[in-house]
Specification:
With about 200 residues, the chain is of the alpha/beta class. The protein has one domain (about 10-195). The protein is about 15% helix and about 25% strand. It contains four helices and ten strands, in the order ββαβββββααβββα. It has helices at about 45-60, 115-120, 130-135, 190-195, and strands spanning about 10-15, 35-40, 65-70, 75, 80, 85-90, 100-110, 140-145, 165-170, 180. Strands 2-1-3-7-8-9-10 form a seven-stranded mixed beta sheet. A three-stranded antiparallel beta sheet has the order 4-5-6, with no helix packed on it. The longest helix is centred in the N-terminal third of the chain and has 13 residues, at about 45-60. The two termini are about 15 Å apart. The model has no long low-confidence stretch (mean pLDDT about 90).
Length: about 200
């Protein structure tokens, strides 16, 4: 089942370096439509990015919450390339600004962010995904492997399709993550993760 980014209050934060590498120069790609979509610039600091996500989450009333916050950016083990800095262990505490502001999940459509968990085993709790879940007090989804994205020429909207390989789902309460997508019975149901 395709995921609907327009359902509810969802925000996508996109790094424009996630592009069409098959052209020279690389063709910019756009993220899918959502309630709020922000393609950051290379000069945006990670503090500014997370602070703005918190403001969007609060909404006009100041008391609203996001259903989901999606990051679409290049990733590596325990971090992503976003804005003018990387978002990783050195600034993971910025996610405190989102504490209580995400009802569903923070989703990383980024390669290998969950690779740290894969290297250490499921019972290892000192991981980037677990730290974000603890700081933001919401579920967090990270990918173990490289994620493949496609686009329709001329339209240039990013389509991640299904997740490749194992995905880790962290809960706000800590503990071992739930491992998904390791067989046909453990597929990622993003609708359930975000909206239940």
């Amino acid at each position: 089942m395709a995921f609907n980014f327009m359902r509810g209050r969802q925000m996508i934060i996109h790094d424009p370096r996630l592009n069409n590498p098959l052209t020279s120069p690389p063709t910019p790609l756009r993220p899918p439509a959502a309630m709020n979509v922000w393609s950051v610039s290379n000069s945006d600091s990670t503090d500014h990015i997370i602070s703005w996500a918190a403001e969007v989450a609060k909404g006009k009333s100041g008391a609203e919450k996001l259903d989901a916050l999606h990051f679409m950016a290049h990733g590596s083990i325990s971090g992503i390339q976003i804005g003018g800095q990387n978002l990783g262990w050195n600034n993971v505490n910025l996610f405190k600004k989102l504490n209580g502001l995400i009802k569903g999940a923070i989703v990383f459509f980024s390669c290998q962010v969950g690779g740290e968990q894969a290297n250490r085993g499921l019972s290892y709790s000192l991981t980037f995904g677990n730290a974000i879940a603890a700081y933001a007090q919401c579920k967090v989804l990270t990918c173990k492997l490289n994620q493949i994205y496609s686009w329709t020429p001329g339209v240039n909207v990013i389509d991640f399709g299904d997740f490749e390989g194992v995905v880790y789902l962290y809960s706000s309460g800590g503990g071992d993550p739930k491992m998904l997508n390791y067989n046909d019975k453990s597929k990622v149901d993003l609708n359930s993760i975000v909206f239940s």
